[in-house]
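Q: Two folds, back to back.
A: First:
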Amino acid sequence: MKAFSKIAFILVLISVLFACKKSEQFSDIPYLEFRKYQLKDSVDALGNIAKICELHLYFTDGDGDIGLFDEDTIAPFDYNLFVNYFETQNDSLQQRNVSPPFHIRIPNLTPSGQNKSLKVNLKYDMDVTYRNSDTIKFELKLFDRALNESDWVGTGLIIL
């Protein structure tokens, strides 16, 4: 009986050890990665045909301070995902300012609980209907609330 109890205890202990999932550790500086894009035809609110560029992004942050609160509206907390937009003109890639800009506000994503690490897949739809070029590119940078910033990441050329 003692041997059975010891074996059962060891099996339970092994199960508990393997069941405990270690939390992933990431840098407190946001890491941003462009994964892919997809072009889609859509219809806007007025019934007009629209061309949507769906960007698939991935990011991590070790302390989870990604995202803005509703009351965060004054620079540098007006946006937290910054986007540079480029068009080809005369076989050359040129950065263009667009109004409104493609920057966005990611809402507060800080997890509750002890482990604050974030690992997020983000899909961002951009209306590229009225562009002056058939080839475009985006560069993106992510900021957290401590104003740590990711590296710029580019999409590569997108042929509309």
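A: Second:
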Amino acid sequence: MDARVTDWNMVERQVREFVQGETRWLPALSNVSALLAETLTDVNWVGFYVADALLASGGSATELVLGPFQGKVACVRIPWGRGVCGTAAERDQTLRVDNVHNFPGHIACDSASRSEIVVPLHANGRVIGVLDVDSPCLARFCEEDQRGLEACAAVLEALW
């Protein structure tokens, strides 16, 4: 069995438990970043970036601001449309990057990161943040990981 195989059904159930009855997004995102960091193998950063418009209670987003995470010190602000996170937010689509060094405009917060997956989070039909997971391994993330992380993101969207 591949050591990177994750029981995504179990992870999604745990995320649902974190969200059930919770009225604030900060504690839920904090617990989910810890859960994913403990559950996923071969990852070196797991966390969230939140749209500045959400933090300012409205308006149009111009950048993503660091939210709860597990890992080394990270970039605090990422412009909308820049790097993997900003591009995923701008395009409103999950980006699975096998080699971040080949991604135009990649922002290297941790030089050890080699692959990355970023999943947009939504509220009221607009992107309000992203879930970001980095790995020191090339091509760490597969379609199953993408589906699992997207399912977790969909559960988290109930917080907004």
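Q: And?
A: The chain has one domain: 8-159.
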